[in-house]
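User: quick one, fold this
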Amino acid sequence: MKSFKGGAHVPHFKRYTDRIQIQPMSVPDRVIIPMHQCLGAPCEPLVKAGDRVRVGQIIGDSGEMISAPVHASVNGVVEKVETLAYCSGDVAKSVIIKTEGKDHSFEPSVKRDPGAMSKEETIQAIRDAGIVGMGGASFPTHVNVNTRQPVDYLVLNGAECEPFLTCDHRAMVERADELVAGAEILSRVIGAKKCLIGIEVNKPDALETLQEKTKDNELFEIVPLAVKYPQGFKSILIKSATGRDVRRGARSAEIGCIVRNVGTTIAVYEAVVYGKPLIERVITVSGPQVPHPGNFLTKIGTPVGHMLAHCGVTSYEDMKVILGGPMTGRAQDTLEAPVIKNSTGVLMLPVEMVREHAPHEHCVRCGKCVARCPMRLYPNQLSIFAETENYEGLEAWNIMDCMECGICVFSCPSNRPILEFIRHAKPVVKKMELVRKQAQ
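Assistant:
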């Protein structure tokens, strides 16, 4: 098993859903589709109130290179376009579609041979489909794989190290053929001679399935990973799988690696072969008091309240709804919050499991967060600088290297909201760096 320094063994809580097969989520009465679903420029709506849309129709786009179009996930009529807060805590223009009819499946109009397509044609197909990193980062995939020089490794992230989440686990077991085909497409585009699939060993059925599917294919190597959080974060996964360090400030391609999530890779296969846009994804719905948890193929824009109701939830008293995993996800203020392209889970957790309800204390300098930080930072000092708005100190202590895994919060005996401090301070430090570069 491959591992890394730092990190922690956190409770898994995967038993609720890890053996439940992927099921279709019911379609809500309306979907809310934000125009900003990637790490890059937001899209401008291409539709207006009263327009009738169909599944897979492009409804938002941007002329910026680092961006990704968005598409209608249902058939219906646009009720309105308005600026709304959404799951990330930001605001964005959103297209609200009232669904019509019962059939909201995507019907392919093409079937292409990836082997007959040029690199440029493949990248354009990925871009047209609006594929982004579905593990959380949401970086546009067509930009990520458009490398100037061939890279050594395509590294697929099947670690799924966050507690509760099992959507990637089930995809590896149930959709292994599409995953392998998508990996072959990506490997051809980036010129990789080897595809490493990293999987934590608490998913033996996924390891066995993919070992069997790739046993006669020299492109692939299945890499068993130690069960430790945050094994699935990009720089950690690269180090565990290849032994290579991602230098400070460097892109992974510069050290010969491109990392893609399992769900992203399957979406690439569907986009390139069938022209299917990213309009739905597998999402885990779980929690100790969710009557019928599971892994659901869900339309982008589906409100979290609809998903929990589908799973039998009728009461939210003394509960928190988290969109994403418990370590890096965000508590939601409204059940109308929609799932987006990088949403991995919808969790309903008792307030005693969510540390934000307790008041935080001053840092006691115990050093637990420092010992466990996989990026070898000083989260305690970063939180103090952020709390006092010492942005120069934050920059000097390398806040931008923080990958926001949340292990510092998990480790802190003073219940300090270290991750929230860092998330609020990062944009300010980033702006400072940009102003300095422009002045130079």
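User: anything notable?
Assistant: Residues 418-439 form the longest helix (22 residues).
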